[in-house]
Amino acid sequence: MSSIRNDHEVARDLATEAGQQLLRLRDRHGFEEPEVLRTLGDRLSHEFLFSALGRLRPSDAVLSEEGADDRRRLTARRVWIIDPLDGTREFAEAGRGDWAVHVALWENGRLTAGAVALPAQGSTLSTVDPPWLPEQRPSDQRLRITTSRTRPPEFVQRLATQLGAEVLPMGSAGAKICAVLLGIADIYLHAGGQYEWDSAAPVAVAHAAGLHASRIDGSKLTYNEADPSLPDILVCRPELSSMLLASVREVADLDGADPHAGA
């Protein structure tokens, strides 16, 4: 892989190759020892991505879910934010495709490139060629909200009931945001706790495609912070954002509900 490739291509190619390595690991190891498979997958993908970025972008810092936090990143101009295996539970379950590899670049205060590989689905969505969004969604189509498969926030179901929306549980945060990008869902909403690496790459692609992405109170998603916790997120078509933010506030106010509380 040549170092002259631009950052968008580097993100796409590294996420894709890491995903292919994870598929081969799945085939070799099988699913009889899921905990071992999850550990091996995390390690394999992290080591590949960390080594490749060190070779291709040696002056850049890296923040990885699976690596030690090098605090020099806080003064760096360019930081790669990676989740080597997002959705480890799903990765270790036969037949599941809702897991991903995330590679994003944060540069001078904002996300500038990103890619989400969905290896078991045979695709990578990236800022090289962001998905095209239809100008309008069918007005008679029921809203679809994708949320956590294993720890859905209680308020999401209340919100879905209020909106008459269908809830689509999925695994990886990257897979859920890609579902919005691909028109499988209209909304991704989460408030049960996440970190920067869970959303950086899919948010970079979502922004490039023209989606709305924010905290659930409407504030900006920020990255490369001293504390990488980024506990809640809303991703949706831009024309839905004002209505959804107002609905989240309304549902959260009912009976003193806490939108950050998981189920």
From TrEMBL:
GO terms, molecular function: 3'(2'),5'-bisphosphate nucleotidase activity
Gene3D superfamilies listed in its UniProt record: 3.40.190.80, Fructose-1,6-Bisphosphatase, subunit A, domain 1
UniProt EC number: 3.1.3.7
Coiled-coil positions: none
Pfam families (UniProt xref): Inositol_P
UniProt keyword annotation of RNA-binding present: no
Source domain of life: Bacteria
Keyword set, alphabetical order: Hydrolase
Class in the EC hierarchy, top level: hydrolase
UniProt protein name: 3'(2'),5'-bisphosphate nucleotidase CysQ
Organism expressing this protein natively: Marinactinospora rubrisoli
